[in-house]
Design goal:
Blueprint lengths: L19 H19 L8 H10 L7 E4 L6 H5 L4 E4 L8 H5 L8 H11 L10 E5 L3 H10 L5 E4 L7 H23 L5 H27 L6 H10 L6 H17 L10 E6 L8 H8 L3 E5 L19 H12 L12 H13 L4 E7 L3 H16 L4 E6 L6 H16 L1
Parallel strand pairs: 1-2, 1-3, 3-4, 5-6, 5-7, 7-8
Helix pairs in contact: 2-9, 7-12, 8-10
Length: 415
Amino acid sequence: MKDEQFDPRYKLPPRQSADPGARKRARRIASIQRDTLSGLNNRPPGIDWFVSVLENGPEPGVLQVGYFCAMAPVELIEAFGARAIRIGCGNAALVQPGEEVLSGEICPLAKSSFAEFLDPDGPRSKLTCVISPTSCDAKRKLGDVISDFKPVFMLNLPPEQDYARFRAMAVGELERMAAFLERTLKVKFSKSALLDRILQGRKRTAVIRELSELRSADPGIMSVRDLMVIVQSSTAGADPDEWLAKAVEVLEWAKSASPGRKRVRPRLVLTGAPMIWPNFKPLNLIEECGADVVADTLCSGVGGAFDPVVVTEKSTSALLSALAQRYIFGSACPCFISPATRISRVLDLVHEHRADGVLHYGLRLCQLFDIELYRLSALLKERKIPFMNLRTDYSLEDTEQLRVRLEAFLETLEG
């Protein structure tokens, strides 16, 4: 078939490994992070519901489509009546099971995410198909491996964020994605359904944007870890209407919160690799060491949910163009040739949120972010903006070493 992206001659039977020990360790890792959050002050109403969504996913019987990377337009998935579930994994306990099949120097996000497909009774077994943007070499080849387990569509990305030059290519890829979903889910595409999901997505964006701005003005309202839980639960398979209703409750609670005393804690802009539940180790350290994250560019954080889809016309082509503009040409991902989008966003956030410094989360073996550090760190130094690269992986063994380094960095900001 001309639409087949993977040659069926070389398809393999899916490898399956029901590992009760790995499941138990993964639940333990999530439980440790959940217990850590339970000790926070000023927790939002209903926060346990958001945590439950992160850990348990959607209710049984729901049509599920998994996706890697924040450049997959979730509204297009939802237009076919499916729940869009981000399937990047942040659980340290699943790195080893993934490594036993995917050997070599591969990032822990890719290994742990693949490990979830090995479990025949795990949450990924409920997926009907997977959408995987070609945002890095690991994701590109992981899509090929996962195609043995589930139908996969690789969303090809342009090399540059030049809308005029690559708009037709990007829209063409979204048309192919829609055709793949129509074929795989056996649901007809509906322009009105797509528009409806775009409008719903704009409401989600508006709530996240306002919550973030309230926290920036007074970080004591709630922990950035709880904000991350709320944001990430919206991509974990929650019913969009239910999520929105509960997020609005949190927003109203935050608006009514009494202003706290002026905080003297350092204000940081967080940038770098995706930080996915329950891998909140860097966030735990930042707040425990006495600093506040007031803005981020993370694709798994507020940065990945801040900008709305802007609709100017209602034709199918115009709607797909709007999705491409928001998800691909507006992305701060380092997979594109020029780092200008992310660097500009970091500098803007430092200015807009009166940040004292920038903290970069470097995930080991993520070459894109590592290489981009060359320019980002030099430009921040040139502008006399304090900067630190917190390079680590999913394990907890280096926690105290990182704590010492972070405390030393924060002391320079206070001085």
